[in-house]
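Example record for the data management plan.
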Amino acid sequence: MNISEYISSGILEAYAIGGLSDAERADVEKNMTQYPEIRAELSAIEEAQEMLLQKLAINPPASVKTKLMHSVGPRGKAVALNAFVQWKFVAAASIFLAMFLGFLAYDYRDRWLHTQVALNDLMAQNQQVAQDYQRVNVRLDKMENDLRIVNDPSFTKVVMRGTANAPQSLASVYWNKESKEVYLSIQSMRELTQEKQYQLWAIIDGKPVDAGVFDGNVSGLIHMKEIAQGAVTFAVTIEARGGTPSPTLETMQVAGVVSKG
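Corresponding structural encoding:
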């Protein structure tokens, strides 16, 4: 428990004036037995309330005592009784004022707690909105970059169609011969198990060159490894996760020839 926050919450003031429910009072009393600091603070509050009552109380002027002492006759007792009732009313009013001030403190605490909860909810919502906004911006930036590559005439598009192993599969490669950049677009390829990955190959001078691995559930363009000039064919095989130095030709999924234009 944070004792400082508990003390500053106003609940001890509400306890001192009897403004708590039975359950709340029991909770305060339990905390007082566990934490001497809370017991000491409650004692200080009760002393402050007593001092407040004393300050608010109005002492009768000395003339009242004189008049009471000299009151004689049948009305003497009635006069004394009337004065006692008046000062008793003043004391009751002082107690009521102290209770009212304590109620204001408790009400302020209750409003503060509700405001704090609402503020926390609002901050959480704002944080979620900011995260969503950031994700959308990242997706838009990627889409804009993908569109730039697809429409860039310096990139050669190589369509890789399905082999006998996967006749329904389809993917494309965008290759810039000058910058050596390679991007892969998956149109239709099945997802693999966790132990397997697809691996892209470029055939250069009759030898396969690793162009990187990828999963089958990726959308948009995938940035692959750079490939130098001389590639005549691109193909994809299924390999162990992480890739292999040489392709397993029996698992080839798609392949496409680079146009000579």
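Summary line stored alongside the record: The helical segments are 3-8, 11-16, 22-34, 36-56, 62-69, 76-151.
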